[in-house]
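Thread amino acids onto this structure.
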């Protein structure tokens, strides 16, 4: 069956790429309603503003690692067709969901599954395994369901408030806490949903995922580095809250309503990256130091005449 499908398609490298691109283009037209709704959602929701960039990053990763990934390309029709059928069926079911909160995520996941199925058809299961990260990265295009997102935002709010309270205490600033309200001499601030930093936290997670994939090779080190995104997100938010509050008290009250408050998230995002950079360098250096272990096998000396020294 495999040889038959291979002979029917008889695809060279360039033809594989053209056929796969054509299939993806056709699927975009077929599921235009879902993808246009996804685009509108990404432009509207702050927590999903990264979605439109994910396919471009995934494509770049495939291109940059093309020699490793596509070295063993071959047609693999059966598993690919099964994945596509699963995607088509799940998309039909998603369109019938009465709870809209799950409809778009489920429909988007179905389209991604269809793309992965097409990739398997034209390149094979072995290439699919080699491209696991770039293709798995496409899962970040799936919107987080609103009820799950609300819990994530609440966690970030609560954690950021606790960390800001801790930092005030460490700095010796008198502070009282009442839920999400923090009172210091001269001002009371509320850590609202907008202060949760969900957008920059998602950006931090994505950055950690890419950096771990590109620079690290040991699985547990990759996982460890990605997990650092969560505490760093809370630290970043806590530092931002404390900084803006102290600037408003001791410098100018407008800092709580100015550009640093509304548009300064990038500054504190860079701070988080500055904290992560030495950790990444340390992990990468440890891999270079360890290196691959070599097994030294002593050569047979029987019957070998040694050279004169």
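Threaded sequence (309 positions):
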């Amino acid at each position: 069956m495999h040889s038959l499908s291979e002979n029917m398609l008889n695809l060279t490298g360039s033809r594989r790429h053209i056929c796969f691109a054509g299939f993806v283009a056709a699927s975009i037209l077929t599921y235009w309603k879902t993808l246009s709704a996804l685009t509108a959602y990404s432009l509207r929701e702050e927590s999903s503003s990264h979605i439109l960039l994910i396919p471009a990053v995934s494509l770049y990763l495939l291109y940059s690692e093309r020699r490793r990934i596509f070295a063993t390309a071959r047609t693999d029709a059966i598993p690919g067709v099964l994945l596509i059928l699963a995607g088509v069926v799940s998309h039909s079911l998603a369109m019938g969901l009465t709870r809209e909160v799950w409809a778009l995520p489920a429909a988007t996941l179905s389209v991604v599954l269809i793309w992965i199925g097409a990739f398997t058809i034209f390149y094979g299961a072995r290439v699919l395994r080699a491209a696991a990260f770039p293709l798995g990265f496409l899962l970040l295009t799936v919107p987080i369901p609103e009820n799950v997102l609300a819990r994530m935002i609440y966690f970030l709010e609560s954690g950021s408030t606790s960390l800001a309270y801790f930092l005030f205490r460490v700095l010796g600033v008198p502070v009282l806490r009442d839920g999400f309200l923090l009172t210091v001499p001269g001002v009371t601030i509320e850590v609202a949903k907008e202060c949760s930093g969900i957008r920059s936290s998602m950006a931090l997670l994505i950055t950690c995922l890419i950096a771990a994939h590109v620079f690290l090779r040991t699985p547990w080190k990759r996982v460890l580095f990605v997990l650092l995104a969560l505490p760093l997100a809370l630290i970043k938010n806590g530092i931002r809250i404390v900084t803006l509050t102290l600037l408003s008290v001791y410098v100018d009250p407008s800092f709580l309503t100015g550009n640093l408050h509304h548009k300064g998230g990038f500054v504190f995002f860079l701070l988080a990256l500055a904290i992560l950079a030495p950790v990444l360098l340390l992990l990468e250096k440890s891999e270079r130091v360890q290196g691959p272990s070599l097994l030294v096998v002593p050569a047979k000396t029987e019957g070998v005449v040694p050279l004169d020294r």
